[in-house]
Amino acid sequence: MRNSSHKSWKWYVYIIECKDGTYYTGLTWKPELRYDQHISGLGSNYTSKHGVKRLAYSEEHQDLKIARAREKQIKDWSQIKKQKLINGEWGREW
């Protein structure tokens, strides 16, 4: 029997800097594919509307539940706090 547990996968929380200077935070298990989707306009309504400048930040997680919690935490942050995380001024510890 095949183990379908997501616990063995790697999960990535990422921040995209948009062309208008805002940030989009997301979660994926295939970061290259997801970034390409954002670039092509198929990644999310937000990035298709605001444009993609660059992948500004990503972090890897082994557990989906932890990755989802981290994504939610970062999404709730101000643009300034996200910028500090991107610039290394805010630690990964949470």
| CATH top level assignment | Alpha Beta
Record the strand order, biggest sheet. Answer: 2-1-3
- End-to-end separation in angstroms reads 37 Å
Order of helices and strands: EEHHEHH
What is the CATH topology classification name? GIY-YIG endonuclease
Helix-residue proportion = 25-40%
Structural class: alpha+beta
Write down the overall geometry: globular
Main sheet record: 3 strands, antiparallel
Give a short overview:
The chain has 94 residues and is of the alpha+beta class.
Explain the overall architecture.
With 94 residues, this protein is α+β, with helices and mostly antiparallel strands. Strand 1 (11-18) and strand 2 (23-28) form a beta hairpin. The protein has a 3-stranded antiparallel sheet with strand order 2-1-3, with helices on both faces. The protein is globular, with a radius of gyration of 14 Å. The chain has one domain: 3-Layer(aba) Sandwich (GIY-YIG endonuclease). The longest helix is centred in the C-terminal third of the chain and has 12 residues, at 64-75. 38% of the residues lie in helices and 26% in strands. It contains 4 helices and 3 strands. The protein has helices spanning 31-40, 45-50, 64-75, 79-86; strands at 11-18, 23-28, 52-61. The N and C termini lie far apart (37 Å).
Notable characteristics:
GIY-YIG endonuclease; 94 residues; three-stranded antiparallel β-sheet; 38% helix; globular; 4 helices; alpha+beta; single chain
Write the layout of secondary structure elements.
Blueprint lengths: L10 E8 L4 E6 L2 H10 L4 H6 L1 E10 L2 H12 L3 H8 L8
Antiparallel strand pairs: 1-2, 1-3
